[in-house]
């Protein structure tokens, strides 16, 4: 039987092998690739925000190839209907001539689903996807269909063009494990991108893990222990985002409209466990939690109009919030 240390090393080897295959295709985006792997290992969905053409679709497609998983892509548009995602009952004729309704699964029935430009679909259609994300099942014609694990969604949205879009409500944003901001490539990265993509040969991705490997990894992540002081540090970060909390700074009380939910605390701890495994450790350190703060909280902390007027961003606020918590971390958590 493998020891915890051996399992931690196995998890690291699997994740690094998958990352290596992604690196054959994706140039740069170090934090994005790591964030995607962390969310996948923790079993959480990802929201990617970035302008078109930065390689978001290629990233998730390459990930599916490296894990040998079924991949589907859904292009969200204003006329997309919920049945276009979940599937629908189709009237068919049997060999005996009888007519009956048969369920035809939609593209949601895959292991890795790319929801491209999710904010372009109507709220009704968005909710069809988000229900599947939360319940791991869909209901069509009064019948419930369970999605085969692993089931993982990466949604994208364009931060620039907002005309004709339907922004995700806060309650739906909260269902995403991470929100990652995709940056423009640097000059050196752009040079490497065009060299790879305009030549005669394109990089080939080789499967380096299986569905069973991923499920085993996701189970093991939850077994990684978290020491009480590290757990309390993560909880203080979340509680400090609430403007009515005693732990909140004056800046949070001034600029924050709504703080992070309990899902944020779950995300911080699970992400911290994966970051620890990526480093080959079977224990969570404070730095593991700190790495997860921005991607876990930037879509869960809602700023008010005063913050917008003063040009205060969520990421800047989270940086200062973390510094504030660390200055007061020895204070007991209010009961």
List the main descriptive attributes of the protein structure presented here:
single chain; 335 residues; alpha/beta; Rossmann fold; Helicase, Ruva Protein, domain 3; 2 domains; five-stranded parallel sheet; two-stranded antiparallel ribbon; 14 helices; 15% strand
Would you write up a description of this structure?
The chain has 335 residues and is of the alpha/beta class. It has helices at 4-25, 30-42, 56-67, 82-86, 123-135, 170-173, 187-197, 211-221, 228-239, 250-255, 262-278, 286-297, 305-309, 314-327; strands at 46-49, 71-75, 87-93, 99-105, 112-116, 137-140, 143-146, 152-157, 178-181, 256-258, 302-303. The longest helix is centred in the first third of the chain and has 22 residues, at 4-25. The protein is globular. The two termini are 42 Å apart.
- List the strand order in the largest sheet: 2-5-8-1-9
By CATH, the superfamily of the largest domain comes out as P-loop containing nucleotide triphosphate hydrolases
What are the secondary-structure elements, in order, as H or E?
A: HHEHEHEEEHEEEHEHHHHEHHEHH
Structural class: alpha/beta
Gyration radius, rounded = 21 Å
Count the beta strands: 11
Q: Into how many domains do the coordinates divide?
A: 2
% residues in beta strands: 15-25%
Layout of SSEs?
Elements (H helix, E strand, L loop, with lengths): L3 H22 L4 H13 L3 E4 L6 H12 L3 E5 L6 H5 E7 L5 E7 L6 E5 L6 H13 L1 E4 L2 E4 L5 E6 L12 H4 L4 E4 L5 H11 L13 H11 L6 H12 L10 H6 E3 L3 H17 L7 H12 L4 E2 L1 H5 L4 H14 L8
Parallel strand pairs: 1-8, 1-9, 2-5, 5-8
Antiparallel strand pairs: 3-4, 6-7, 10-11
Helix pairs in contact: 1-2, 1-3, 2-11, 9-11, 9-12, 11-12, 12-14
């Amino acid at each position: 039987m493998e020891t915890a240390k051996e399992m931690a090393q196995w998890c690291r080897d699997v994740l690094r092998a998958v990352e290596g295959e992604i690196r054959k295709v994706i140039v740069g985006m170090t934090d994005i690739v790591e964030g995607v792997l962390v969310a996948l290992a923790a079993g959480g969905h990802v929201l990617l925000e970035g302008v078109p053409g930065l390689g978001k679709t290629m990233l998730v497609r390459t990930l599916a190839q490296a894990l040998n998983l079924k991949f589907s892509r859904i292009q969200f548009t204003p006329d997309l209907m919920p049945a276009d995602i979940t599937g629908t009952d189709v009237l068919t004729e049997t060999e005996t001539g009888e007519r009956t309704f048969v369920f035809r699964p939609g593209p949601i029935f895959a292991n890795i689903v790319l929801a491209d430009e999710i904010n372009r679909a109507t709220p009704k259609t968005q909710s069809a996807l988000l229900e599947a994300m939360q319940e791991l099942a869909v209901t069509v014609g009064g019948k419930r269909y369970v999605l085969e694990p692993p089931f993982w969604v990466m949604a994208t949205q364009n931060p620039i063009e907002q005309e004709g879009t339907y922004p995700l409500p806060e309650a739906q944003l909260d269902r995403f494990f991470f929100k990652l901001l995709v940056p423009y490539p640097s000059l050196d990265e752009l040079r490497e991108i065009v060299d790879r993509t305009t030549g005669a040969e394109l990089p080939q991705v080789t499967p380096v893990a299986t569905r069973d490997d991923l499920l085993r990894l996701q189970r093991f992540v939850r077994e990684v222990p978290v020491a009480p002081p590290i757990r309390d540090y993560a909880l203080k970060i979340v509680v400090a985002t609430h403007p009515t909390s005693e732990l909140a700074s004056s800046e949070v009380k001034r600029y924050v409209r709504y703080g992070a939910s309990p899902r944020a605390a779950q995300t911080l701890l699970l992400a911290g466990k994966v970051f620890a495994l990526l480093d080959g450790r079977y224990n969570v350190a404070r730095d593991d939690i700190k790495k997860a703060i921005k991607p876990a909280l930037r879509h869960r902390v809602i700023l008010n109009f005063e913050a917008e007027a003063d040009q205060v961003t969520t990421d800047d606020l989270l940086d200062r919030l973390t510094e504030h918590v660390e200055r007061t971390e020895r204070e007991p958590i209010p009961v």
